[in-house]
């Protein structure tokens, strides 16, 4: 009797496997040839599904922040390069028609103390910045201009020039044009730009200390990205990372500063 039952089980399984295979081809419901008893199919248990979802969540939590950071860094690199190209061309065109910056009738910048004891630019300096932008406006097509003001609160200070696509804005500057009258290598001024206005619009204090702010130097015949990599990688002045970002196309000084140098490694990966 035990033998017969064993044989019957084998027959049922055989028919079940055959019918299941046929059902995949013909899209019919598989069943066993024994009073329409349905075949059992393998499936995940609830516990297995929950464990799988938990693993996916852990992996996502570990990788997504890195992906977002890498994307934001690429955006910064792209925007800095774009500003450098656009402003350099405009600066060259301005020099062709107006002479070098020391011939634009501008004075050296100066600061004063406001009623709240904050160090701000003098009215004469702000007028100089306005005159500088008026000269440059002819060569910066479709750029939005906001007059810079004497305030320690960036939201009240104006954003100077913003490129037509909104990617970068000049949020501060310092002029030394008189220094360039006797030297072709002297720094004639500094431009401070941001690649993310949202990070600085409510900033209070020296904009050079704000996040996502980078510096360019103006010279008699060109502008250049600020380069002081020691200050950059130490974190004491991130505005001086500009040259590294533009020339090397990365911000790896945030990840492996001690491994990088101009004479050695230019990224964490090589």
Structural topology:
Layout: H1 2-26, H2 46-98, E1 111-113, E2 119-121, H3 123-137, E3 144-146, E4 160-162, E5 169-175, E6 189-194, E7 213-218, E8 223-225, H4 229-234, H5 242-248
Antiparallel strand pairs: 1-2, 3-4, 5-6, 6-7, 7-8
Description:
The relative contact order is 0.09. The radius of gyration is 33 Å and the shape is elongated. The strands form three sheets. It has a four-stranded antiparallel beta sheet with strand order 5-6-7-8. A two-stranded antiparallel ribbon has the order 1-2. With 270 residues, it is of the alpha+beta class. The protein is built from five helices and eight strands. The chain has a domain at 79-225. Mean pLDDT is 81; it is low at 1-5 and 27-35. The N and C termini lie far apart (75 Å).
Please outline what is shown here.
By secondary structure, the chain is α+β, with helices and mostly antiparallel strands. The protein has helices spanning 2-26, 46-98, 123-137, 229-234, 242-248; strands at 111-113, 119-121, 144-146, 160-162, 169-175, 189-194, 213-218, 223-225.
